[in-house]
Amino acid sequence: MPPGPRIAVLLRLIDQAYDKRSWHGTNLRGSLRGLSAEEAAWRPSADRHNIWELAVHAAYWKYSVLRRLRGGERGGFPVKGSNWFRRPEGGPDEKAWKEDLALLGRMHRELREAVAGLSDEALDQIPPGSKTRLDDLVSGVVFHDIYHAGQIQLLKRLRQKPRASEKR
């Protein structure tokens, strides 16, 4: 059975924010494409997050919404901690970076699948332990992806040396 119209809209937004073409520019997956572990680990200053941390943070919030959709218990995220995760542990490591990107992809697919299984009517519900309706949780994680995609694009630009035309 095809999804209801509200679910269909949310699925399209989830896709556009993460990995499908959209009018707003680079989506989250696109902002991460082709980055090395060294590039992802770069920080503009010691007290600022890097791209790697933003990617794992996005994975965590996909998990957090997914947990609420499924009614799961806290503590099931594969990385110990919550919200922000210091990355990298040690020096930049390509294998660890790829594993964290795979985690983000897995959390996205699981979230999308859970949303696809909802009814339009379910979107009006507030899950136990939350103060927020399901439709707002799902749209919020969409906005979260887009917000952090923009941050990542900015961090990539800050890391580059300025072009001659940009120097004053």
Write a brief structural summary:
It contains six helices and no strands. It is mainly α and 168 residues long. It has a single domain (5-161), classed as Four Helix Bundle (Hemerythrin (Met), subunit A), CATH 1.20.120.450.
The count of domains is 1
Report the end-to-end length measured between terminal Cα atoms: 59 Å
What share of residues is helical? 55-70%
Counting DSSP E segments of at least 2 residues, the number of strands comes to 0
pLDDT averaged residue by residue: 93
- Return residue spans where pLDDT drops below 50 for at least 5 consecutive residues: none
| CATH class division | Mainly Alpha
* Residues in β-strands, percent: under 5%
**Count of alpha/pi helices:** 6
Radius of gyration: 17 Å
Main beta sheet strand tally, sense and closure: none
Name the CATH superfamily assignment: dinb family like domain
Could you describe the 3D structure shown?
It is a single chain. By secondary structure, the chain is mostly helical. It has one domain (5-161): dinb family like domain (Four Helix Bundle (Hemerythrin (Met), subunit A)). It contains six helices and no strands. The chain has helices at 5-18, 28-32, 37-41, 51-70, 94-116, 134-159. The protein starts with a helix and ends in a 9-residue tail after the last helix. The mean pLDDT is 93.
In terms of topology, how is this protein built?
Layout: H1 5-18, H2 28-32, H3 37-41, H4 51-70, H5 94-116, H6 134-159
Helix pairs in contact: 1-5, 1-6, 4-5, 4-6
